[in-house]
Amino acid sequence: MNRNAKGALAAGAAVVILLGGAGSYALWSDSGSNTPGNLTTGELDLTAQGTPSWTDVSTTGVVGGTAVDPTTDLLVPLDTWEYTSTYTAVATGKNMEAEVTVDPGAAGTPPTGVTVTPVATVDGTPAPGGSTVTITPGAPHTVVVKVTVAFADVNDQVSQNQGVNVSGMSVNLNQVRS
To answer: pLDDT truncated to tens, each residue of the chain (178 aa)?
Structure first.
């Protein structure tokens, strides 16, 4: 076989191989896309509103009005004083529930005869058990926290000149899952 014939035969074989190889890459394929959109996270917020206040809610003996100034007024036996603060609570999002809790703080042991009782309400509904109430998503909720400090009838000079520390009190809003 001459050189030209060998060259033509080799060129033909190369074309057959190339065409055969090209056919193996001709499988069908397709792709598509879908836009899932953007996600946004919910919100859990507790904001103090207005000015908190102390009032004398004693059942007897209220002298000088019901307003209490804790820097100058002194708690005596049979007094009941109430601290009131108001908050706005916002809970948004699917599956969002939150609890409002009142922690009187690590104030130590109150003097003998003195009790400190925190109570929270959400939109006027009191918390079962006193200090924990659940809120659900929707419009902002009004949270009212009242802390009652009651001084029982004590004898002699029990609990005189002692502090009742409620300055460490905190109101918390925490997400819960049911």
So the answer is: 666 656 555 556 555 555 555 555 668 888 888 888 898 888 889 999 999 999 999 988 877 778 999 889 999 999 999 999 999 998 888 888 888 888 877 656 788 899 888 888 888 877 665 556 677 777 898 989 888 999 998 888 888 888 888 887 888 888 887 6
Q: Which residue shows structure tokens 């003097």?
A: 111
Angle at the Cα of 172 from the Cα atoms of 52 and 93, rounded to 5 degrees: 115
Quickly count: other Cβ atoms within 10 Å of residue 52's Cβ: 12
**Cα 65 from Cα 70, distance rounded (Å):** 14
**Two tokens, residue 128:** 């079962």
Cα separation, 80 vs 113, whole angstroms: 12
Closest CA to 114 of 73, 156, 166, 150: 150
At residue 177, φ and ψ (nearest 5 deg) are: -115, 130
Give CA–CA dist 61/83, Å, rounded: 19
Which pair of tokens denotes residue 47?
Answer: 């904001």
